[in-house]
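hiii, so i know i said id send this last week but things got crazy w the move. better late than never?? heres the sequnce for the chain we talked about at the cafe, plus the structure i predicted for it. fair warning i was half asleep when i ran it
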Amino acid sequence: MPLPASVLGIPGVQPLEMQVVDLGDLGPRMRRVLLGAPAFGGGAGAGGGGGESFAYQPGQDIMLVLGQAGDRPLSRRYSIRDIDRARGALELNVVVHGTGGPGARWAAGVQVGDAVNGVGPRGKITLAAAADWHLFVGDESAAPASLNMLEAVPAGTPAWALLEVTDAEDELPSRVPQAVRWLHRRAAPDGAASRLGQALANFTLPPGRGHLYIAGEVQMVAALREAALARGLEPAQVAAKAYWGRGRPNAPRGEPD
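okay and structure toks below
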């Protein structure tokens, strides 16, 4: 899809004309998609970016334009998991959850060689540079950004992640596996805050002024944020972002009624 003016006009982003250069499955519910473009630092991809190097901060995302409803673009935002500068490829880890909406259809049907346009980087939640420690909490939709930020924490600064997925086969690889605790919901509904809430309640917050990052389902994020504030963290120490809402209709943006 061509990039509409409404997308190109977003402040602080650059246009990206990309091509899928590799695909793989990270367990039964997550797809690894590598997108190539010269702007990512190598020769892979299908033009775009005007030769300008793509700079981002861990925790940010890119917006892909995947369709159109009337005169409105159907776009989806995906957290950047990593960039391979030598290969000129950006990695996305995309949750696979059916084929009802444009994002789900794209993730299920994308093939190596497919072209896709977008803009980036987007997102205001990145590492708090002055924090004495970092803690990342979220579900599988938050895992790519959480792991990207966790791996970018400077050496010597304590950092951990509490991440909930369906089962052990959904755990994602990380360069710092010792810092990640995976929680398995199994038959419990996704988006429930019980397991993550208990894990956060049992986590001993270290001394110093740290920073907590919460992301995932909207009701879960709200509950975890309130629990964190009740433990004495100040609002400025908690970065919270909802990626999705369980049971919430989203027909105007292309999802099934």
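btw The first strand starts at residue 14 and ends at 25. thought thatd interest u
miss u guys!!
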